[in-house]
Amino acid sequence: MDLALVIGTEAQYLEKTTGLSMLQLSGPVLAQKKLDADSAELVNQAVSEVRKCFGGKLMLHTFFYDFSTALTWILDIDVNVLGLDLTVTRVKSLKQYDVDRTIYLGVLDSRNSYLEKVEEIVSATLNFQEIVEPPAIHLGTSADLDFLPRSVADKKVEVLGLAYKRLMEHE
Known about the structure:
5 helices, 5-stranded parallel sheet
């Protein structure tokens, strides 16, 4: 819990001094395998510690692993946005759950230089929307683009923008 308190205190400071309004907590290991009840409760307590300090929106982002592995417990966590890596998540496995909050959808694979097609992103997003029916979707990368060449990362972000525009036209 000490680390959660440090993160919460830092987020609170940034909230007051810079106007930080959303904090992303990254936890790829949370979806790596099914957590036992004690581990899931520990995560819940840690997020609660951060929440006590930080008044903005919280996002818990899992990546590199199938999000459905965490669904038995992660919907109980007090966050505004849940992030998942659509490049590895089996969407049909999410259908049985009532997703009651915004989903950050990692539609671009951050692990390779493959340049996704706009149509692929649009189709995957619409398919996710139809199956899971979250109240809102935020689009982005599966994880940070730090390890891709800058030119590739820029092109991926450009494609993401084009896909977003196409999705807005679709509504």
